[in-house]
Amino acid sequence: MQQGTNLPKVGSYNRSVVLETIQASDGISRVRIAAMTGLTAQTVSVIVRRLLEEGLVVEDGSAPSRGGKRPTILRVSAEAGYAVGVHFDPKALSCVLADLAGRPVARLHLPVRPGARPDGVVRQMARAARRILREAGVADGKVLGVGLACPGPLDEDGVMVSPPRLAHWDRVPIRALLREYTGFPVTVDNDATAAAIGERWAGIARSTPSFAYLYLGTGIGGGLFLDNQVYRGRSLNAAEFGHMTVDPQGPGCYCGNRGCVEAVC
To answer: Is 27 left (phi over 0), alpha (psi -120 to 50) or beta?
Structure first.
């Protein structure tokens, strides 16, 4: 669980920490949020009041008292907002609609035509996002944004940089294109790091501050968490394990080296 900070001018960060804490729990009190995040009771109360006003959080009963007033239980309002997740593999698109509690509401899986050009594939992503929202009956006003997991490497602006196995995809501004074609805010990460984040948020690594995640897809990649934070390194792609050389005399790899993990596997 991320820790908040009581320093000034970090309100948006603390807000996300509190909301994440509520999302990850099956009902939690303000006192417990303060204990888990390190924030003061006053800071937690101010943030929770705003989340209640925005309809993102609801009060849902109370917990047993340990002396004094019974603490009020807080839960996310699952239907207050939705997000569309898109996973782009060179061979397929997977699309999921999730509510604010992180629960899948609808899914869609579509093939990607071999050799398809970037603009056509991104337009296909946008159509898939629109289709899943339409079929689920979710209005645009309730959509918080789109999360895209795609092959890396990616730069800090969401531009794909010479992704392996994807000809014609060098310097494709995939985040900007998907934002333009959907009309929604877009968050993008490479597929391996996105998988590691998902494991940290909702999988067996929820209580593990540091771990390495090995991703096996069309290629081999990875994600790193160190002290509860994604570690990206100077290249922003620190955990790309697939092209580490493990056998200098091994088979040739399409990247030009020999004996890469991906080639050996």
So the answer is: left
Cα-to-chain-centroid distance, residue 132: 19
Q: What confidence tens digit (pLDDT) does each residue in 201-212 have?
A: 888 888 888 999
- 202: Cα separation from own chain's centroid: 11
Instruction: Check if the beta carbon of residue 163 is closer than 8 Å to that of residue 154.
Output: no
For the segment 132-181, what is each residue's pLDDT rounded down to a tens digit?
A: 999 999 999 999 999 999 988 899 999 999 887 788 899 999 999 999 99
Pair 174, 93: CB distance under 8 Å = no
The architecture of the domain spanning 80-194 is 2-Layer Sandwich (3.30)
